[in-house]
Write a structure and sequence with these properties.
single chain, 73 residues, alpha+beta, Conserved Hypothetical Protein Mth637, Chain: A, five-stranded mixed β-sheet, 1 helix
């Protein structure tokens, strides 16, 4: 399954996932330095969908706030 997420790194609101018309909005406290925000997003998405972190990966948008995430079934 692929989903589109909009990431808000360095947010004091996080860790939190909200839904909107375009997909998911993921708020994480980690800054977008050395992939810290990407790792936090993967961990949060895995918890949200009750799956292992190894089954969640960023497919597109590694350096963008809008990312495509793939979750292996």
């Amino acid at each position: 399954m692929r989903i589109v997420v909009r990431v808000k790194p360095g947010s004091s609101k996080g860790p939190l996932i909200e839904e909107d018309a375009e997909g998911l909005v993921v708020f994480v406290r980690e800054k977008a330095i050395d992939g810290g925000a990407n790792e936090a997003v993967v961990k949060l998405i895995a918890e949200h969908y009750s799956t292992a972190k190894s089954r969640v990966r960023v497919v597109r948008g590694h350096t963008s706030r809008i990312k495509q995430i793939e979750i292996d079934d």
